Amino acid sequence: MVVGTLTLELFLPDNHSLKGKRQILNHLKDKVRNQFNVSVAEVGGNELWQRCRLGVAVVSNERAFADSVLSKVVSLVSADRRAVLLDYQVDIK
């Protein structure tokens, strides 16, 4: 069994409230979940309204598949105009 995790640091430049942040993140998390069948959660920056940290996890039987899925998640998130991807970290075990 291979477990891949991805941590995404996001900046939401046009956001001005926690309610707006929640709307953006819920849409983004739903899109990632539905397209890639992975687990997604906000794991940091909960009290900040323009920054957040998302955690993504995928379980597979092949390392290459887990890496591919997480790379596609990074591409999808970085293509969203409402969020700027500041940094990300991939860990596959």
Folded structure, characterized:
There is one protein chain. The protein is an alpha+beta fold and 93 residues long. The chain has a single domain (2-92), classed as Alpha-Beta Plaits (2-Layer Sandwich), CATH 3.30.70. Helices cover 39% and strands 38% of the residues. It has a 4-stranded antiparallel beta sheet with strand order 2-3-1-4, covered by helices on one side. Strand 2 and strand 3 form a beta hairpin. The radius of gyration is 13 Å and the shape is elongated.
Summarize this entry quickly.
With 93 residues, the chain is of the alpha+beta class. It has helices at residues 18-36, 63-79; strands spanning 2-11, 39-44, 51-60, 84-92.
Give the N-to-C terminal Cα separation.
Answer: 9 Å
Q: Sheet bearing the most strands, described?
A: 4 strands, antiparallel
Number of helices: 2
Uncertain segments are none
Task: Give the overall shape, derived from the CA principal axes.
Answer: elongated
Counted beta strands: 4
